[in-house]
Amino acid sequence: MAKSKFIVVAGNIGVGKTTLNELLQERFGWEVYFEPQSKNPYITDFYRDMQRWAYHSQIFFLTERFKDHLKIQNSQKVSLQDRSIYEDAEIFAHNLFDRELMPERDYLSYMNLYEAMLGSLQKPDLVIYLKASAWTLISRIRKRGRDYERDIDREYLAQLNIGYDKWIKKISESWNVMVIDTDNFDIEFDKEWLGGVIAEIGARVKGL
Questions:
Q1: What is the pLDDT of residue 38?
Q2: Residue 164, in any domain of the structure
Q3: pLDDT at 37 (0 to 100)
Q4: Could you list the residue range(s) of the whole structural domain that residue 71 is in?
Q5: Each residue of 31-70: pLDDT tens digit?
Q6: How many CB atoms lie within 10 A of CB 96?
Q7: Cα-Cα-Cα-Cα dihedral of 150, 151, 154, 155, to 10°?
Q8: Can you tell me the distance from the alpha carbon of 69 to that of 79, in angstroms, rounded to the nearest whole number?
Q9: Is residue 113 part of a domain?
Q10: Is there a contact between 176 and 5 (Cβ–Cβ < 8 Å)?
Q11: What total of structural domains would you count in the chain?
Q12: Is 68 a known active-site residue?
């Protein structure tokens, strides 16, 4: 593989991004930059009181994602990122603002910082979008049993899905995008389907 290929694995909460990243790392030896969810000191408070902690939590994710993005740009390896800075800003933060869970003053401050960061960023060579319905996501979230995710509701996930569909449609005009619908498949257990998916991803990355 040529050096410095940058792949984003994008998708909503619970869709299977981390599982796919781990499998790709195991299969191809690619370097993975996992989502900094467990390190976020605000995440538990955020899910209990989104309006109080939205700005703090999103700033943490924005900062960590920016640092990882810069590391990837300087990497000599094929690198995978478990959700991107673009999703943080254009889907998650935007959704919080739309739902009046992030005040306009905070949102404008956040977006001003994000737009300043964009000038330093190279776009991914490939975006792999894992897609699933809100009901499927709820089922998977409950299955994995993270305490801080217990109160996530279907409406929140459905709104994020709408944001993802809009974002994917927009970037598909100029970015290399691969969409994988996971509603009828389990990334952990549907081996035949998964083998085909991993082979196709490998072929796409090799052809970049």
A1: 64
A2: yes
A3: 65
A4: 6-206
A5: 999 987 668 899 888 888 989 999 999 999 999 999 999 9
A6: 24
A7: -160
A8: 10
A9: yes
A10: no
A11: 1
A12: no
Q: Which of 45, 49, 68, 82 is catalytic?
A: 82
Residues comprising the chain, all counted: 208
Does the residue 1 lie in any domain? no
CA separation, residue 106 to residues 47, 102, 166, 175 (Å): 18, 6, 23, 29
Is 46 a member of any domain?
yes
Q: pTM of this prediction? A: 0.91
Looking at residue 51, which CATH number applies to its domain? 3.40.50.300
The rounded distance, in Å, linking the Cα atoms of 179 and 194 is 14
Section 182-200 average pLDDT: 88
Four-CA torsion 134, 140, 145, 148, nearest 10 degrees:
-30
